Amino acid sequence: MLIEHDDLIIDKGENYISVFLKGDMGENARLKMTQQEDGDVVLSIYTVPDKNGIQNSIEFCTFSGGGRYPIVAQKLREIINSLQLIVKNGGK
Known about the structure:
Blueprint: E1 2-5, E2 8-12, E3 16-22, E4 29-36, E5 41-47, E6 54-60, H1 70-88
């Protein structure tokens, strides 16, 4: 399910949730944060308009998934949850 609000797009799948963000300075790059079913989070940067044209990505794993910095995955999940609330509450 795709949900859009201003420059924020949320894509909720059966086993993942992805959040797409536009930068604050109007650049053509976008940040994609994907929370996987196991709690790992992948950060990707791509150029507009091709969401599949990923330039770089990095994955942060949970502690049980062998993550060296599970706190990073935890905080990224919190950001994803907060962005979902922003969309749910109409930008507030």
